[in-house]
Amino acid sequence: MAAKRTQIYLDDDLRERIDRARTREGRSLAAIVREALDRYLTEEQAARQPLGEGPPPAWVGAWEGEGSPLPELRTELERRAERLGR
What we know:
The protein has three helices and no strands.
């Protein structure tokens, strides 16, 4: 992986939380920060992607009733609509 050095400033609390995660997971600070940023940016991109674009979500063709993902879908659609001001 080609990478560019980037400097960031972290407050004491955030740095301590990252250090605890590093110790617990045996990973580097850089790996944790990269993963966190990747997750954040992926979620933001998905939230901004208009409904109906991109590959169909995993719940397409899902059942209703117990164990149905439809309540979570409704919540996600409401969240996106609110974010878009609709």
